[in-house]
Structures are given as C-alpha cells and as structure tokens.
Amino acid sequence: MPHLNELHQQLGPRGLVIVAVHTPWGADNLATYVRTKKIAYPVALDTPTEQEADRGRTLAAYHVDSFPDYYLVDRKGNLRYADVLNGDVDRAIAQLLAEPA
C-alpha cells in the first residue's frame, strides 16, 4: 500500500488514477483499514455475486485469483494490462503515461 500511495502522489499530476477494489468480505473493517494504512487513493467496495457472497462481481469479471492484482486501463478506457506482477507495475504504468493523451 505505501508504494501505491507514492505512485498516486507522484504520478497523479501526470494522469495516473488508482482505484482499489475491495472484496465484499471484510467490508465492515474497510474504513478503519483505509484510515490506519493512510490510503490516499479511492477504494471501492465490490458487490457480492449471486452465487458467492464473499466473491465480488468485479473480481469475478476480471478473473482475479490473487491479491493484490493489478489491472491497468489506458486514458481511453481500454484494459491494456491484466494481472500485472508486482515487479512490472511501475514499468507498465510508465509505458501508459508516456502515450499521448
């Protein structure tokens, strides 16, 4: 989380927008977690699927299988990178920010 806060602060002015999606389980502790971890970017709460109360619709739609999981959307709203590894996030973000607006 600290690295995402850094990216949010450093690259936000260049167009980076970070939105975290939290699973439905543990929602009762989400506000406290965001506050204590000092998360500076938006955190959305996923809604449960009809089949599984603890699996969110967004997680199901993107086939999320681990946490954290990174999905990068370009300035036009197109999903460009899916399931990015932790070590590749900065490079992928830099590539997208280098593209014309």
Give the percentage of residues in beta strands.
15-25%
Output the CATH homologous superfamily: Glutaredoxin
| SS class | alpha+beta
CATH architecture assignment name:
3-Layer(aba) Sandwich
First-residue to last-residue Cα separation: 27 Å
Structure description:
The structure is a single chain. By secondary structure, the chain is of the alpha+beta class. The chain has one domain (2-98): Glutaredoxin (3-Layer(aba) Sandwich), CATH 3.40.30.10. Helix content is 32%, strand content 16%. It is built from 4 helices and 4 strands, in the order αβαβαββα. The protein has helices at 2-11, 30-36, 57-61, 89-98; strands at 20-22, 43-45, 70-73, 79-84. The strands form 2 sheets. Strands 1-2 form a two-stranded parallel ribbon. A two-stranded antiparallel ribbon has the order 3-4. It is globular, with a radius of gyration of 14 Å. 2% of the residues are buried. The mean pLDDT is 92.
Write the layout of secondary structure elements.
Elements: H1 2-11, E1 20-22, H2 30-36, E2 43-45, H3 57-61, E3 70-73, E4 79-84, H4 89-98
Parallel strand pairs: 1-2
Antiparallel strand pairs: 3-4
Please tag this protein with its features:
101 residues; alpha+beta; Glutaredoxin; two-stranded parallel sheet; two-stranded antiparallel ribbon; 4 helices; globular
Q: What's the short version?
A:
This protein has helices spanning 2-11, 30-36, 57-61, 89-98; strands at residues 20-22, 43-45, 70-73, 79-84. The chain has 101 residues and is of the alpha+beta class. The mean pLDDT is 92.
